[in-house]
């Protein structure tokens, strides 16, 4: 049973099972033909050869020496005037970063950047375009910063040169409407300052701790420490002040409130101690704890810069569209499109606004919006909704709505999504910290009363010492470091979470909603075709030529199966709902259902069966069915035990029996779901008190992904775009989902264990504090000891918790 | 005692220089991209000299 595979295979698989000699020299795809040759090198397509020739001409072949087959396959040629819109001055203004009399600076997002060859080639762009002065690649962000002299080249030319060598800059509506956020480096400065001060305060505290009284005069050291603690208190700890204040403003006591209280008390107590000459203060403990907490915060917030979790429709839409005005074509920025304009939509372009088809034959692929896989035909006068992709030739359409008011974009304006802020639940860490704080305050109060009775002079030192020791910083450290470890471990297995809060929501989910196309099914293989019967090469060629004439999804699937042939077809006939026929090289071909082809009895076949007859003889049948990801049945069986499962598909219910078997009897299956329906279903589950995990892949799931408690978008190539979500999962890792969930569950446990462990330090400290005997030396030992041991403990426990995941991933790759 | 003060001054100065260097490295974006600089330095330059500065 041969299985067709999409030619665009991922690198991960490529390196494993394909020898280099039958691969494209440029991109490494398996060669389908050896006819495309240049300089003794074989290429998979004309596009790859073209790129090679450009590089060869300009002596840029180092590109191929740095990495083998560094290119990206370029099957869909880019329309020649695609970047014509970049000549538009208003558009330019919105894209460029800076311009003076001679130079222009611009940032392009280039999703294809993936290796050092890419960096080298892009930074050698000036050899292809003399007007380019300097190019700098930011690999992590997949961004290219280009400086060019506008007298010698133009923005459009630069973009076209990049496209010609396979690095098409990605320009979307989002680039126009929002400026890229400034990189926030404040935290890094803050930790730098905190680290510097912490180190020096510690060093300067040693003389007083270790010398016998009278050896040295501690005054100088104390004041230096005060001086060094000031920047930490006033600058480095700002992040905590801000978060605590933000919480208080919303009437919420988060973990940063007691921490700020502890920092302020420590500083005040130390300041008074030094000014009155009573002691050296606790500056080393204070600066140290700020430093460690900042480190935890930075690690936890370290995000995947190359991935974006916030894409809405804007990043899918082009920045400009061709408008026909007075019979002339003009590129107009998308936001300026008004109702009543005539748009020219090229082949393979997205329809950006709802409109009426005026000219041309539209074959719209709505899979983007609805998930329905078969393209629909529309004829002149019918309405075409935004988000569809034209798949055959150019069409003209008259807009009836602006871009922002179209059906698809309207989804983003729904009330439910606006109220998103509330959805994020409060982490248990804050609740824990709150209880902890109350207990501490009670101990402090009781101690104050005790000393008030026996020795009033000890009230101040005892109470401040309690507040210093009992700051829940250990809890904060435990949670931020554990979260950071988890994010990193999950990321290593290609499951990327947006933030630490997502770990907890992931663990709490109790219902899982799946999308079908692209999530349960494998986009790369698409459909599986199995063939019963034998075909000669001529027959196969004839069949390939015949199906190439038809745009029916089954024909397209078969065309992929047979390979591309273009033999002339005579007497081509398409009988609606029955099949197609024609004669190729003297072979009378008939392809269709049993009655159409004259097959005697219907053989049982899974999915849709298509029979083939050649010269009146039945030559077997093809069964076409959607191919689900390998192992999906095991996955669903595992999940079924714990979760309420549901499937929302934009497609029709052709596959319902298969899906019922996969999802189990208890699962809810819904077909022909519009994006709005999916959102409503998630909402309905939530109103029933469920915590919903939504797993989808397309823009049609975007609303549901956003509404769900945790939305996971599945992608087979992380360079591709994924709609706004809380997590991005590499499609091949979907089977590991139960392990990911397990790890997220372990997260809470690890935080709790570390917290309980850290309590021993707190209790030790309290033991000294209530007696008003907490000397700075004890604080200086307890603080780093507890911090470092907690960091190590969380690391070891997270590592252990991920053992099962690691093993599963290893087995998974072996298969 | 005066020796200690001298040493104090020296050690703090050195530490301050490092802090300044750190701030400079953050400011020039060296913390942004940890992949390309490491590879860029390995590129051989055939014809033209200045390409990454």
Give an overview of the whole structure.
The complex is a heterodimer of chains A (815) and B (53). With 815 residues, chain A is an alpha+beta fold. Chain A folds into six domains: 11-66, no CATH class; 82-171, Alpha-Beta Plaits, CATH 3.30.70.100; 186-304 and 424-482 and 745-808, no CATH class; 316-417, Calcium-transporting ATPase, cytoplasmic transduction domain A (Distorted Sandwich); 494-521 and 630-743, HAD superfamily/HAD-like (Rossmann fold); 527-626, Calcium-transporting ATPase, cytoplasmic domain N. In chain A, strand 19 and strand 20 (579-584) form a beta hairpin. Mean pLDDT of chain A is 80; it is low at 1-19. With 53 residues, chain B is mainly alpha-helical. Chains A and B meet through helix 5, strand 5 and helix 8 of A and helix 1 and helix 2 of B.
The gyration radius over C-alpha positions of chain B equals: 19 Å
Number of strands of chain A: 28
Protein structure class of chain B: mainly alpha
Instruction: Characterize the largest beta sheet of chain B: strand count, sense, and whether it forms a barrel.
Output: none
Strand order of the largest sheet of chain A: 16-28-27-26-17-24-25
Rough outline of chain A: elongated
Most residues in contact, chain pair and counts: A-B, 32 and 31 residues
Number of domains of chain A: 6
Order of helices and strands of chain B: HH
Helices of chain B, by number, come to: 2
Give the N-terminus to C-terminus distance of chain A in angstroms.
19 Å
* Cα shape of chain B: elongated
């Amino acid at each position: 049973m041969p299985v067709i595979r999409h030619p665009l295979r991922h690198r991960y698989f490529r390196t494993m099972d394909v020898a280099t000699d039958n691969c494209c020299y440029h991109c490494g795809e398996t060669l389908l033909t050896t006819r495309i040759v240049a300089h003794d090198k074989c290429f998979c397509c004309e596009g790859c050869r073209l790129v090679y020739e450009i590089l060869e001409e300009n002596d840029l072949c180092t590109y191929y020496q740095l990495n083998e087959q560094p290119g990206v396959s370029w099957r869909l040629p880019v329309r020649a005037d695609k970047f014509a819109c970049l000549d538009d001055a208003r558009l330019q203004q919105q894209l460029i970063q800076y311009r003076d009399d001679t130079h222009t600076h611009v940032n392009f997002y280039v999703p294809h950047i993936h290796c050092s060859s890419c960096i080298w080639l892009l930074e050698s762009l000036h050899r292809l375009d003399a007007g380019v002065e300097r190019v700098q690649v930011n690999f992590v962000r997949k961004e290219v910063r280009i400086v060019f002299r506008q007298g010698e080249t133009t923005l459009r030319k630069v973009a076209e040169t990049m496209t010609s060598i396979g690095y098409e800059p990605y320009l979307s509506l989002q680039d126009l409407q929002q400026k890229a956020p400034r990189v926030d480096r404040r935290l890094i400065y803050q930790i730098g300052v905190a680290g510097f001060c912490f180190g020096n305060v510690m060093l300067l505290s040693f003389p007083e701790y270790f010398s016998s009284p009278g050896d040295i005069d501690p005054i100088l050291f104390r004041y230096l420490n005060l001086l060094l603690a000031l920047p930490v208190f006033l600058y480095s700890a700002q992040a905590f002040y801000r978060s605590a204040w933000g919480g208080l403003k919303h009437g919420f006591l988060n973990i940063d409130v007691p921490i700020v209280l502890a920092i302020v008390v420590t500083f005040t107590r130390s300041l008074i101690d030094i000014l009155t000459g009573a002691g050296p203060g606790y500056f080393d403990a204070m600066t140290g704890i700020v430093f460690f907490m900042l480190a935890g915060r930075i690690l936890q917030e370290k995000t995947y810069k190359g991935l974006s979790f916030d894409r809405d429709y804007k990043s899918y839409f082009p920045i400009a569209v061709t408008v026909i005005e007075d019979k002339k074509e003009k590129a107009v920025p998308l936001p300026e499109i008004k109702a009543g304009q005539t748009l020219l939509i090229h082949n393979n372009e997205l329809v950006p606004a709802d409109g009426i088809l005026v000219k041309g034959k539209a074959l719209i692929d709505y899979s983007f919006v609805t998930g329905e896989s078969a393209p629909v035909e529309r004829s002149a006068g019918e309405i075409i909704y935004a988000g569809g992709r034209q798949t055959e030739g150019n069409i003209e359409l008259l807009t009836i709505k602006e871009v922002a008011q179209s059906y698809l974009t309207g989804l983003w304006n729904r009330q439910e999504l606006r109220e998103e802020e509330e959805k994020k639940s409060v982490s248990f860490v804050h609740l824990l910290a709150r209880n902890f704080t109350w207990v501490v305050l009670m101990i402090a109060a009781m101690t104050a009363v005790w000393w008030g009775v026996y020795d009033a002079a000890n009230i101040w030192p005892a109470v401040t010492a309690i507040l210093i020791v009992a700051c829940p910083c250990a809890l904060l450290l435990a949670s931020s470091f554990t979260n950071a470890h988890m994010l990193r471990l999950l990321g290593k297995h290609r499951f990327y979470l947006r933030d630490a809060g997502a770990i907890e929501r992931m663990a709490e989910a109790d219902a899982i909603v799946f999308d079908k196309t692209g999530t349960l099914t494998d986009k790369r293989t698409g459909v599986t075709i199995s063939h019963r019967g034998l075909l000669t090469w001529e027959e196969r060629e004839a069949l390939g030529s015949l199906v190439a004439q038809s745009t029916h999804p089954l024909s397209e699937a078969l065309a992929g199966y047979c390979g591309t042939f273009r033999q002339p077809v005579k007497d081509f006939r398409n009988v609606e709902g029955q099949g197609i026929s024609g004669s190729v090289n003297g072979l009378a071909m008939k392809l269709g259902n049993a009655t159409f082809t004259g097959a005697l009895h219907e053989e049982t076949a899974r999915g849709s069966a298509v029979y083939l007859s050649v010269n009146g003889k039945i030559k077997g049948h093809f069964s076409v069915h959607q191919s689900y990801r390998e192992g999906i049945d095991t996955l669903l069986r595992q999940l079924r035990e714990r979760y309420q499962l549901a499937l929302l598909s934009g497609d029709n219910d052709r596959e319902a029996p298969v899906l019922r078997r996969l999802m189990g009897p208890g699962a809810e299956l819904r077909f022909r779901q519009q994006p709005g329906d999916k959102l409503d279903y998630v909402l309905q589950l939530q109103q029933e008190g469920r915590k919903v995990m939504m797993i989808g892949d397309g823009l049609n799931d975007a609303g549901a992904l956003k509404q769900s408690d945790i939305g996971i978008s599945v992608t087979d190539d992380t360079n591709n775009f994924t709609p706004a979500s809380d997590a991005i999962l590499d499609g091949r890792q979907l089977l590991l989902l139960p392990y990911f969930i397990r790890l997220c569950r372990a997260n809470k446990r690890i935080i709790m264990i570390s917290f309980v462990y850290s309590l021993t330090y707190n209790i030790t400290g309290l033991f000294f504090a209530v007696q008003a005997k907490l000397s700075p030396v004890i604080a200086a030992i307890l603080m780093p000891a507890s911090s470092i041991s907690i960091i190590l403990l969380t690391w070891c426990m997270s590592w252990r918790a991920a053992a099962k995941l690691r093993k599963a991933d290893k087995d998974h790759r072996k298969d | 005692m005066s020796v200690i003060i001298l040493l104090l001054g020296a050690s703090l100065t050195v530490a301050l220089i490092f802090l300044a260097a750190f701030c400079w490295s953050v400011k020039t974006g060296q913390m942004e991209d940890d992949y390309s600089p490491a590879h860029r330095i390995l590129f051989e330059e055939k014809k033209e000299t200045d390409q990454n500065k």
